Amino acid sequence: MGVTVSLVTGGNRGIGLEVCRQLAARGHEVLLGARSPDAAARAAKEAGATPVRLDVTSAADVDRVAGEVGRLDVLVNNAAITYDTWQRPSTADLDVVRDAAETNLYGPWRLTQALLPALRRSAHGRIVNVSSEAASLAAMGSDTPAYTASKVALNALTRMFAAELRADGILVNAVCPGWVATDMGGPGGRPVADGAASVVWAATLPDDGPTGGFFRDGRPLPW
Fold this sequence. Notes:
globular, alpha/beta, 6 helices
């Protein structure tokens, strides 16, 4: 088997960039996806990756990338928007909710569908959906309704894809990186490297590893 090829969306900053860096350090050939070609190029140079212009909300972008990717072993659906701390469900702007879902749910869904042929050709296919403990029904409050609802749906998508792809040997898991000090998370969170390591753990699971789970730091979280 040759080098492991991994694609990370939203890879130009924060957790995504650090995931790219850590996977590259493990010897993966990393495709760093970002909406801006310039941002992708700068980040890829920093991470030791290959830049890929990819807006997950663009069907044309997704189709182009799927056509360009010959081999793929790992897909990390990391791109996300709208941590809407200013909203509550009773007064939420549903246009904001729709925009969040377009990137946080439909984007990963669209991209996973497009890249499944390549992942099925891999002997060790892995899909990691970067989620959040905010999406845990067991502990859910009223905060960040657009972000939370989109991540709950992403968790459901994780379970469905895991069930469908189990026979193909493709492991599909959702990962909460924790509260991390990024542009989205804000100051006070744990180091970016720690959150990214949680994602990398799921991206590099052995063939007998779990699938259809929700994890942080390799430990299960309640749905």
